[in-house]
Design brief:
236 residues, Rossmann fold, seven-stranded parallel β-sheet, two-stranded antiparallel sheet, 8 helices
């Protein structure tokens, strides 16, 4: 595979340690704080039928990016390759996602590419979101959970990025509980220590239900100053 040219620094890939960890909310929060033109690309949406709102609709509702784009949609709530197979339709190739992101980067200040599920969920029989990031030569932000089990899942994801020569931009906790337990509180310190990358934000559970103004305030309080927020913690 050959990396795309001219997009480094303008494209950020957003993945998770699994499904339902808050990738869409984190994508929307970064969008809400960015001062320039932002495009949000969802290469593959699964588990949503024709005409139903998907993840890009949630981002548009919360943060109003300049552009939202979805390339493929399959109704079954499965990994993209399996969902495409069950739908009897071609799976989306990583090269198609990389081309779309490159085109968007030409007239946007930032392109956020939100994956489906975790980093190594198959998009085709032999390719994953990691292959999209390789083609784009783009850093990858990892969204993770707060509580027990997150250290292992986050460390494995970061290690998988490193073995592919990819840069991990950092971690964000996508849904911080209203009443965090001991494990969640300790993980604020342990996540950077275990993974070797900084924790760059903590967004509260339920943030995706807020109106746009309230969500912008939550994003400002919950994201690191590198994205225009005010949340800070020690790095690795």
């Amino acid at each position: 595979m050959t990396a795309a040219h001219g997009v480094v620094g303008r494209v950020l890939v957003v993945t998770g340690t699994g499904t339902g960890v808050g990738k869409t909310v984190v994508t929307a929060a970064i969008t809400a704080l960015h001062p320039g033109r932002v495009a949000v690309l969802k290469p593959v949406q699964t588990g949503v039928g024709v005409g139903e709102p998907g993840d890009v609709a949630d981002v548009a509702r919360l943060a109003a990016p300049a552009t939202v784009c979805e390339l493929a949609r399959y109704p079954d709530p499965l990994a993209p390759a399996a969902a495409a197979r069950r739908a009897g339709r071609p799976a989306l190739e990583p090269s198609a996602a990389a081309r779309a992101a490159t085109l968007l980067a030409a007239d946007h200040d930032l392109v956020l590419v939100e994956g489906a599920g975790g980093l190594l969920v198959p998009y085709t029989a032999g390719a994953t979101l990691a292959d999209v990031a390789v083609l784009l030569d783009a850093p990858v932000l990892v969204v993770t959970t707060a509580g027990l089990g997150t250290l292992n899942a986050a460390a494995l994801t970061v290690e998988a990025l490193r073995t592919r020569g990819l840069t991990c931009a950092g971690l964000v906790i996508g849904a911080w509980p209203a009443a965090p337990d001991l494990a969640a509180c300790e993980n604020l310190h342990d996540l950077p220590a275990v993974t070797g990358v900084p924790l760059l934000g903590v967004l509260p559970d339920g943030a995706g239900t807020l109106d746009r103004a309230a969500f912008a305030r939550v994003a400002h309080h919950g994201l690191h100053p590198c994205w225009g927020g005010r949340w800070q913690t020690s790095g690795p």
